[in-house]
Design goal:
Strands 1-2-3-4-5-6-7-8 form an eight-stranded parallel barrel, surrounded by six helices. The protein has a domain of 246 residues: TIM Barrel (Alpha-Beta Barrel). The protein is an alpha/beta fold. It is rod-shaped and about 180 Å long. Helix 7 links the parallel strand 4 and strand 5. It is 37% helix and 12% strand.
Length: 407
């Protein structure tokens, strides 16, 4: 019985091996058939591409026949593609936390500038009328009056010109000095001269008032000038009527509120043109509203007559002193419009002569007086930005000369 089982097991084993061998051969045949078909398709495909390329480049060429020795299988391709980097190239993980260093402080002061501004506008001077004074009295009438001993004043004033009635030379000259100098010895000189002649000093702390008010030196010396009888007025520039009127008024406010002793305003860079009268009317009214007594404008030449009503004085000459005698002024400068205005009328006009040697100063003073100018100043300061940054070297002598003229 055992033998029979062994025989049957051997038979079954042999049958199983034969079946397995047959199956393996069939599978190998199928693989070979599949590979041959794939190789043939690949060969035909690439032959077709080569044939198409040859035809498109030159129609006269013929396709090459396929090579029987071509491989029967498609070359193996990589099973994977190269992998892309999973991260970008490294970059700095942080950015600068601060900007490049800058200066921690800014300059506390502006670049130094001249303390004064040009005082005359580059404009042609108005055509002036002759300087001869009007005389309504005929030579015969004058001769008759002289022979009879009668006076040309009193009841016969209707036939006499105002300049003959009340000569302007009967009133003393005053000095209008641009005191643009920092308080010190020059201020002492001005204070000392006030015992000889009436002086109006234009103070100019910073091309106008210092917004923070006067420092201790200004306080001390302004008090000294006031005690000596010197009147002080504040400098305000107007840019020939082009500066904002609000800024002009702000400067006036600063003077009146912080500078004790100010009695008026000096408007520099004044326009002589009628077109700017409205601007200066507003400025004048503002000065008067503050209770001040002086409102002086400086066009440096004879302006339109309309300025007469909106000023207390007009600087009708500001140039080299030697040129003063070459200027002629209209009759409204040399003579008042009526007898009620004649007293003090000469103070409506001021003259400043610069670039003048001491030896020539007295002659310039006499010229101003003869032209009906009541407030004057002559200096050896040269023309330019800084004419008045120093007091004239002969101020004491000038004051004595004016006092002699007034005697």
């Amino acid at each position: 019985m055992l033998k029979l089982k062994l025989v049957l097991f051997a038979i079954f084993l042999i049958i199983g091996c034969v079946a397995a061998l047959g199956a393996a051969q069939g599978e190998a045949k199928e693989i070979k058939t599949f590979a041959e078909r794939q190789g043939r398709e690949w060969h035909e495909h690439h032959w077709h591409e080569a044939s198409s390329e040859g035809s498109s480049s030159d129609n006269s060429e013929t396709s090459e026949s396929t090579d029987d020795s071509a491989p029967t299988t498609r070359p193996a391709e990589p099973t994977t593609r190269p992998t892309r980097p999973t991260t970008r190239p490294s970059e700095p993980t942080t950015r600068p936390t601060t900007r490049p260093s800058e200066p921690t402080t800014k300059p506390t002061t502006k670049p130094t500038e001249p303390t004064t501004r040009p005082t005359t506008k580059p404009t042609s001077k108005p055509t002036a009328a002759p300087t001869s004074r009007p005389h309504s009295t005929s030579a015969a009438a004058a001769s008759s009056a002289a022979s009879s001993g009668s006076s040309t004043t009193g009841s016969s004033t209707s036939s006499v010109g105002l300049c003959d009635l009340v000569p302007t030379t009967s009133e003393p000259l005053k000095i209008l000095v641009p005191l643009y100098v920092y308080p010190g010895s020059d201020w002492d000189t001005v204070a000392s001269a006030a015992s000889e002649v009436e002086i109006i000093a234009i103070i100019n702390p910073n091309s106008g008032p210092d917004p923070s008010g006067p420092d201790s030196s200004y306080v001390t010396y302004m008090s000294q000038l006031a005690s000596a009888g010197v009147q002080m007025i504040g400098y305000v520039y107007t840019s020939y009527g082009e500066r904002a009127i609000s800024d002009v008024e702000a400067d006036i406010d600063t003077y009146t509120s912080l500078y004790t002793g100010i009695t008026g305003i000096f408007f520099d860079e004044g326009s002589p043109d009628a077109s700017e009268i409205a601007f200066y009317t507003q400025a004048y009214n503002y000065v008067m509203s503050k209770g001040l007594v002086h409102s002086i404008i400086n066009p440096g030449v004879q302006p339109d007559e309309g300025y007469l009503a909106i000023t207390t004085s007009i600087v009708i000459f500001e140039d080299q002193g030697a040129l003063a005698s070459t200027i002629s002024y209209s009759s409204w400068v040399t003579c008042a419009s009526d007898s009620t205005e004649k007293s003090g009328y000469k103070y409506k006009f001021s003259g400043i002569g610069h670039t003048t040697a001491e030896a020539d100063a007295s002659g310039i003073i006499s010229t101003f007086e003869s032209q009906g100018i009541g407030m004057i100043y002559v200096t050896d300061g040269a023309a330019g930005c800084c004419t008045y940054n120093t007091l004239t070297s002969y101020f004491a002598t000038e004051a004595s000369t004016v006092a002699s003229v007034n005697a």
